[in-house]
Design a protein that fits this description.
Layout (H helix, E strand, L loop, with lengths): L31 H4 L1 H23 L4 H18 L2 H13 L2 H17 L2 H25 L22 H17 L6 H24 L5 H34 L1
Helix pairs in contact: 2-9, 4-8, 5-6, 6-7, 6-9, 7-8, 7-9, 8-9
Length: about 250
């Protein structure tokens, strides 16, 4: 016979190891703009004010017109003397500010549809479609010609140049990606890196368009201003509506 075990056997509970979540898992809006809508209001006021000043300068043929021409001509001379590799690197800004943004918008749309993340889906659809409408209306209204040179190198977008559609899209898209990702990152270092990367991409796209002769500097600045204002308006409104609808369902 086997000896009878004395006492009560205890079974140790095995706790599953906690798997750290990936920054893109459950990619949802942090709701910061709904919590502090004053941030969105400041973005709107700053963006509209800066754009208004640039638009007035263009309409009144202000002093920035001459500065625009000087900068574009100097950069064009630098472009002609640069290596083919350097020109290709800067010309890539055209695709990063257009084709990549369309692809990112499509991927986010499919992801949010699959996850049934309706507020986030609304942010993408409204922001991307609204940006296109804003650029189309304003560029046709001002109808500013793009820079012209006897020898043009690079990829030039069709249509008028003020404001820069690439700049609006860059702020709207890469700013949103940083807004979605940063709150999910635990490390302060990587938070800063993501924000810095988004800012550098936005600046690179704008500079590349001026360097390659596709835009005047004020075209790009006007695009940045509109991108800030439109992002502040679209994303804040979507978050506020989503927050109100959630509160209504819970009550």
């Amino acid at each position: 016979m086997l000896p009878k075990a004395s006492g009560t056997a205890t079974v140790a509970a095995i706790k599953p190891k906690r798997v750290p979540s990936h920054p893109t898992s459950g990619l949802r809006t942090p709701g910061l703009l709904a919590k502090w809508p004053v941030i969105g209001l400041i973005m709107i006021l700053l963006g509209v004010s800066l754009y208004g000043l640039l638009a007035i300068n263009l309409e009144d043929h202000g002093p920035l017109i001459l500065t625009d021409t000087q900068i574009v001509n100097e950069l064009h001379q630098a472009e002609l003397q640069s290596s083919p590799v350097a020109r290709d690197v800067l010309d890539f800004g055209f695709y990063l500010g257009e084709h990549f943004i369309l692809a990112i918008g499509a991927l986010l749309t499919l992801y949010f549809l699959y996850k049934h993340y309706w507020p986030e889906l609304s942010m993408v659809v409204i922001a991307w479609l609204g940006e296109g409408a804003i650029w189309l209306v304003l560029s046709q209204y001002f109808n500013r010609p793009r820079p012209t040179f006897s020898l043009f190198i690079g990829t030039q977008a069709p249509g008028p140049g003020f404001p820069s559609g690439h700049s609006i899209s860059a702020v709207m898209c890469y700013g949103l990606l940083a807004y979605l990702l940063v709150p999910k990152i635990a490390s302060r270092f990587w938070k800063v890196m993501v924000i810095l990367a988004a800012v550098l991409i936005i600046l690179y796209i704008g500079f590349s368009r001026v360097y390659m002769g596709d835009h005047f500097p004020t075209d790009v600045l006007a695009g940045y201003a509109l991108g800030i204002a439109w992002s502040g308006l679209a994303y804040t409104v979507v978050e506020l509506i989503s927050k109100r609808m959630t509160a209504h369902r819970e009550s």
